[in-house]
Write a structure and sequence with these properties.
Layout (H helix, E strand, L loop, with lengths): L4 H16 L24 H14 L1 H4 L16 H5 L6 H7 L12 H12 L19 H11 L13 H4 L3 H9 L20 E5 L5 E9 L3 E5 L5 E5 L6 E5 L3 H7 L4 H11 L4
Antiparallel strand pairs: 1-2, 1-5, 2-3, 3-4
Helix pairs in contact: 2-6, 7-11, 9-11
Length: 277
């Protein structure tokens, strides 16, 4: 019979405590001190680095930069689901389907789920693992301005759509989430104006030449499902690249940049944007 992760972790906790002070009654250490859970070895540092970017953009607003809980999300490091997970097999279904209590669903690939899991599992878990408060405005505003001018001004302007953006998003965490991927931040009460992600659309060109355009409800390697302007739904099999599908994602430029941001870039741009009041 397999012990649950919570029971097993508790059992290992007692063993760990006893090992640190074998003189303590019953093998456990007195005084309620710090006890570490067994740490998982990091097999692929590059996967952890990729997972950190994905987590920072999509998850840190709710679950905290270190996965120990935030304003609206629970501590992941002490979750039984996470403790039982190995390479994303438990975390993945939650990411893809979301939760009823406010967590959206994400369109992560299997590789991205594995990377996010690797990042979460890279944190040491202990009996004192709890929420923390972190100041994220630690970057260089001048460097952030230079990055903004080189990468962002083709679509955005500090005298146009971003005028006074720091006054609209007074919480730097919300501001950071919003500029990295609009729609991923600024949707919780009191933190700033809600900003939903713009709609992704697609044009499907059938062999007959007919073009069908609508909002993308689902797309994968086998099917694309659309909601048309009149509210009707249509789905098309896409194996063999027939019919032709043209995706129009207003956030594609943001998503492309996700692969290139360094931690310094993210902190620097945030430090610059908080000055735009």
């Amino acid at each position: 019979m397999r012990l649950s992760a919570a029971i097993a972790a508790g059992f290992l906790l007692v063993l760990s405590a006893g090992a640190q002070n074998p003189q303590a009654p019953g093998g456990a250490r007195g005084g309620g001190g710090f006890v570490a859970y067994p740490q998982r070895p990091i097999a692929d540092p590059e996967a952890v680095a990729r997972g950190k970017v994905m987590f920072d953009v999509n998850c840190s607003f709710c679950h905290g930069a270190d996965a120990r809980g935030g304003d609206d999300g629970p501590n992941l490091l002490r979750s039984e689901l996470v403790l039982e997970d190995q390479k994303g097999e438990n975390i993945g279904p939650v990411l893809l389907t979301g939760r009823d209590r406010g967590m959206p669903k994400f369109t992560f690939t299997a590789a991205q789920i594995s990377d996010v899991a690797a990042y979460i599992h890279s944190f040491p878990v202990s009996s004192r693992t709890g929420p923390s408060i972190i100041n994220i405005v630690v970057g260089n505003a001048k460097a952030g301005e230079a990055f903004f001018n080189s990468k962002c001004t083709s679509c955005h302007s500090i005298t146009g759509d971003l005028k006074g953006v720091a006054a609209k998003y007074t919480d730097p965490k919300v501001l950071q989430q919003t500029w990295i991927l609009p729609g991923s931040g600024g949707r919780f009460g009191g933190a700033g104006p809600a900003r939903t992600a713009p709609t992704t659309t697609a044009i499907v060109t059938l062999p007959s030449g007919e073009k069908v355009e609508g909002k993308v409800d689902r797309i994968d390697d086998f099917v694309v499902s659309l909601t048309l302007a009149d509210g009707t739904h249509r789905s098309f099999a896409t194996e063999g690249n027939t019919p032709a599908v043209e995706i129009r994602d207003p956030l594609q430029a943001h998503k492309d940049l996700l692969r290139n941001y360094s931690d310094a870039d993210i902190h620097n741009v945030t430090a610059y944007l908080v000055t735009l009041k």
